[in-house]
Amino acid sequence: LENGLENGRTHAEKVRLRSNLQEQYDYVIVHKSVWEALVAWYGGGPALVREVVLKGVQQVPTVEIYPLKLLVVRSSIAGRVEEVEFSSEATVGHVKTQLCKRFGLEEEEVRMWDYYHGSKYALLDQADRTLESARIMNEQKVLLEEKTNEQVEDTEEDNGDVLATSGGSTGDWLGSYSGGFKYGGFGAASEDAVIESKGQRGGLCGLSNLGNTCFMNSALQCLSHTDALVQYFSSKQYLGDINKDNPLGMGGELAKAFGALMEKLWKGGASSISPRNFKHKMARCAPQFSGYQQHDSQEFVAFLLDGLHEDLNRIKQKPYMEEKDNDCRPEEVIADEQWRYYCSRNDSIIVDNFQGQYKSTLICPVCGKHSLKFDPFMYLSLPLPSTKRVSIKVTVISTRGEAPPTKYCAQVPKQGTVDHLLGELGKLCGLKEDEALLLTEVYSGRIFKYFDDHSEALSAIKPNDILVAYRLPADKVDRAGKQYREAVIFHRKSERRKSYLSSERCEKSLFAAPLLVPLHPGSDDLDNELRHVEAAIEVALKPFVLPSEGAQHTNGAEGEMDTEETSENSARLHKSEPAYMICRTNQNGTTTEDFEVVEKSSGDVLRTIGGFFVGKPNPGIEYFALDWSNNADGKYDLELLESPRLHSSMEDALCAERDGKKPVTLQSCMECFLEEEELDKDDMWYCPKCKVHRQATKKLDLWRLPDVLVVHLKRFSFNRLWREKLDTTVDFPHDALDLSSFLNANAGKEKYIYDLYGVSNHYGSTGGGHYTAFAKLPESGKWYHFDDSRVSPVDVEEVKTQAAYLLFYQRRHSEGTEISEMEVDMLSNGV
């Protein structure tokens, strides 16, 4: 590799990945030697080669998954655009050399231009400069301006791809005149360019999309309408606070870029600008934003505010203070002490306006040890109520034939384990003390997986998985002290099928969830062994036996089965014609020549092929199948096999799903955020008293609230198996959000009331989507919709949508507008 460049291969010679793919979910990165080994063992391909480049100020090694795609325009060929790919770290000189070789041009006869928006933006004449540092964006046009010795006549402009000239002379550069709006006032590419100028007032300027940068534009519009930041940057006060010596900052580069952008957004006169310079500076601070893939606006806000804080931190020499023991001291003393310590090392416009403090309490479940910490925060990430718990549907089948198969819906913690699920199921189905539940996953009529590890995370269960739990004896030892065995009973039916190459034939196919029954310990007596198998199946099938015509099938309390009468009905029904045949199978439910068949007839076992077991029974699990006959429907309820009864919890789940589509209040999200929870087993806390890691309980409480409160609604969930976005509508107030009741008791009677001024919206799914913003002008109080470069007025009621992702609130102060006690009460109650 040369200069991080793969020889300037075109997109036709490389495989370009779809946009917005996620590592570990859509792809994994492996070393070249690992790839070669995998191909040697299993085959495959093509190889998707990517380079490691150094990104940002810290020169972080980064695998460049998406190289830059350039649209090359030649001044000598009208209407033709060539697509090529280069690494963002390729130099301008190398790119020019590769392009000239590709098109058969002499480098001395060509000038290369940044052809942004179809106009000559900047001459690319610094050969050692990288494309990244030259602000070249993905899918951007680059102009190759060719020198000619012929008289150049007037040519027509073709969609901005070819530059028009007027009366050129011998030796002129073809296309030396830049048609359209000229950017000469900005000189080099170090400024954020004005795209359109229509005399717009300050604060109503859009931001052009540089290629999947709507997330950045949405966040910037919300932050740029924060009154404290507008005043701070417009007054140039930030220039005196720049900390050039902070190793965690960028020497003021990010703050200056943000200040320049704020000035252009608020000086008026432009309808939209292109934030190229700001994006470049942000990418240097946070290399993950260096490409042109979709990102999360909340992550962008977090990194931007943190970067601005480090650039503008007024503390040049940070003092060291030893943390004291928090035992036996008042909470308010500890909180004030830790806040003073934090502020002695962090002092900026960001801390002044955006940062608050919360209390974190951890309690050991064994010794009761309390751990108390007070930490700063810059935003609140609030879970939606539906993200804390998850509904999992499970069919429970009794092995004793005491109840029909019933489908339950268990509400369990989303970060819970199989043990949580089994505990909730036990409560729902009334599990007895001498019973235990065995959880399985069923697929295509077979048991696909046994959940033997009760500590397994529920995140491993996908929404469409079919789960079946079997009620088995808790003690697998009978009265004689011998251990039970288990048998899986498949259900099979005959179907006639005709293939393309053969005539019609009868095939057996699996259906419904299999039964799981306990078998008594085996013996050497064949008939006795067979009767054990038949008896176990007979018991398991009791709930499916249909009563004979005119027979009373209930006795005593409603819904209880009359076991004796059911047995009589079963015997009478089977005297006519067998409803099923019992076959021994392998674990896939397939019968082979070595397996024998037992026909269920009038209560007798008919051995149609020799002995049922060959020698002693195999230890462990046995496998059988019930081959149901065509007339079984009149004797057994086969529909119940495939469609179990629904428990009342299923109806509750349907109601919850319907309610999930209804709006939830911001207050309920806050309550969900502050409720006590048990730590996940992968995130256990080390108890200093027990000297071991414990699954402690954690509780958060708000202690201090900032003047500017950023609320993040946690709509996205990810893991290795699935990803989802919740489109639940959150009902949030745009005026007078009262959070006083959520603050600690030591906050006094001071009111914490906030007014909304910005919303970052996300439309679409987790794989991409689009970001927009709503923002309110401080002086007029009018709301506007910002969709990249487009700005339009909206009514305040239009601000509330199910796309709301980030909410920006400004606190009211006592000297400001007063609100009535009635208004406070209404808003506190979510009205």
Question: Can you put this structure into words, describing what you see?
Answer:
This protein has about 850 residues and is α+β, with helices and mostly antiparallel strands. It contains 18 helices and 41 strands. It is about 20% helix and about 25% strand. Helix 3 crosses helix 8 and helix 6 (about 255-265) runs antiparallel to helix 7 (about 275-285). The longest helix is centred in the middle third of the chain and has 15 residues, at about 295-310. It is globular. The model is unreliable at about 1-15, about 150-170, about 175-190, about 550-565, about 570-575, about 595, about 600-620 and about 815-830 (pLDDT under 50).
Runs in which pLDDT lies below 50 for 5 or more consecutive residues are 1-13, 151-171, 173-190, 550-563, 570-574, 593-597, 599-618, 815-831
* Quaternary structure: single chain
Beta-strand portion reads 25-35%
The total strand number stands at: 41
Summarize the biggest pleated sheet. 8 strands, mixed
The rounded Rg comes to 36 Å
Shape: globular
Overall residue-averaged pLDDT value = 77
Number of helices: 18
Helical content band: 10-25%
**Helix/strand class:** alpha+beta
> End-to-end distance, in Å?
63 Å
